[in-house]
Amino acid sequence: MTQPRKAADLGITLPLLPLNREFTPRYGEVEEVAPGIRRVLARNPNPFTFHGTGTYLIGRGKVAVVDPGPLLDEHVAALLEAVAGERVTHILITHTHGDHSPAAAPLKHATGAPTFGFGPHGAGRLLEGVAVEEGGDRDFVPDVVVTDGDVIAGDGWEVECVHTPGHTSNHLCFAYREPSALFCGDHVMGWSTTVIVPPDGDMAEYFASLEKLRQRNDTIYYPTHGAPIESPQAFVAALIAHRHARERQIEACIAAGLQGLAEMVQVIYSEVDPRLHPAAAMSVRAHLTHLVSAGRLRQDGSHYRLGN
Predict the structure, then answer these.
(1) Is the pTM for the entire model greater than 0.90?
(2) 108, 166, 158, 31: CA torsion to nearest 10
(3) Residues 93, 119 contacting (CB under 8 angstroms)
(4) 279 to each of 48, 275, 276, 298, how far by Cα in Å?
(5) I need a surface site. Which of 125, 205, 211, 261 has the fewest CB within 10 A?
(6) Which of 27, 114, 33 is nearest to 72 (CA)?
(7) Going from the N-terminus, what domains does the chain have, and what CATH number goes with each?
(8) 3-class DSSP state of 246
(9) For the residues of 283-298, what is the DSSP string, one character each?
(10) pLDDT tens-digit readout, 126-165
């Protein structure tokens, strides 16, 4: 194969993802997105968070807060104003990245509500002796450790914990049983694909977690960033197909003689904003690890070759 210069040269068409980037940010305001579900948006927009972190409030009177968000005084004040006259009884954390969990500390201090999560940053890998990346919120330790299948009940609401490692090893989704909704954190986002950062992030686990969600019957997803996702099983199936196509592109790059991570990213993501290439490189590295573990690639030092 002639050495490719852009994604189209690889001859592998990516399935079209039905991404939705229509979202009007209303920072600090309380928005009712569904009966019993409210959202307050943090003012932390960037290429990774889209328009910012959406913190969800479940219930009325006695409420749960899902992903309090970044440590921004403005956002914490907006959350406390949103629940004025109510009691926060639970603080639920999908995972320990800096745009999701740090505001749990001041919210807990102000309300006395306990925090719930799978564990501290890297909790899903630490027992394996894996030294996870430094970028997580290492100050967060949940008051109550929950895992897959655990049920958290409040006043008039109930959620089931769904462990979905991949983006991080301690990532949880929370399934709101009525009305069959899923607070999916960063595991599935309607505006973009999810970045997988090894060693705590793991592509094989991410594929397995996507398949796990595809087999559920949730009717709508509420990601922490962006708009709700309707027809979620079809969206997840498209994500799986998209990721498989990315791996075929990586194999095509290697077959054409490309070896460096940066040069593969420049080809595979040639039509993507270059500012996102560093994040894309993390996911490509995760794909390479997955392809090697699956036997589709062989690795000799920094050199890769097709495994068949």
Answers:
(1) yes
(2) 70
(3) no
(4) 9, 8, 5, 24
(5) 211
(6) 27
(7) 7-15+244-306 (1.10.10), 30-239 (3.60.15.10)
(8) helix
(9) HHHHHHHHHHHTTSEE
(10) 656 555 555 688 899 999 999 999 999 999 999 999 999 9
